[in-house]
Amino acid sequence: MEIFERVKYFRKNILHLSQKEFAKKLNISGSNLSNIEIGRINLTDRVINEICDVYNINKEWLCTGEGEIEKTLSRDEEIFNFFNKIKDTDNILAKRFILALSKLDIQDWEVLDKLINNYLEASKSEIDIDITPKRTKPDHKLTPAEKRRIVNSEINQEEKVQIL
């Protein structure tokens, strides 16, 4: 796979963005990106660096196909990127959850920490419970019924763990 094919693969199959959406964050035109993705014009160093910075792509993977696709981030960078993703989507559940977390005090955080630790301990038990909902498309493309099904599935799994 050539570099221009990796750009298209990442944009289309991993980010699920249109050329227009992807190009806008890079400050290039959609037609410029289109020409890049078909190999008509070469990527400049500026555009390569911009893609890697804006979309957190490992430059080695983009240029050579070697290594992991995404850069390894520090915990703070991951948190920052997560908040930016949430901010740029219409995922109301995620925004409500983040807002609720922002209002926790020290005692609430301690309770949440215990809850997480108990959950992790229960999930290490011999009973094999698959708590990962099967998602075939990103949150913003889910119908309300699909969102309810996923949330209900997660609640059911949590209740099973609590019973154990």
Overall radius of gyration: 20 Å
- Would you tell me the structural class of the helices and strands? mainly alpha
Head-to-tail CA distance between termini: 48 Å
* Strand/helix succession: HHHHHHHHH
Write the layout of secondary structure elements.
Blueprint lengths: L2 H13 L3 H8 L3 H8 L7 H11 L3 H6 L10 H13 L4 H11 L3 H18 L20 H20 L1
Give a verbal description of the structure.
The chain is mainly α. 66% of the residues lie in helices and 0% in strands. The chain has helices at residues 3-15, 19-26, 30-37, 45-55, 59-64, 75-87, 92-102, 106-123, 144-163. Helix 2 packs across helix 3 (30-37). The chain is elongated and about 60 Å long. The N and C termini lie far apart (48 Å).
Short summary:
This protein is an all-alpha fold.
Structure keywords:
164 residues, mainly alpha, 66% helix
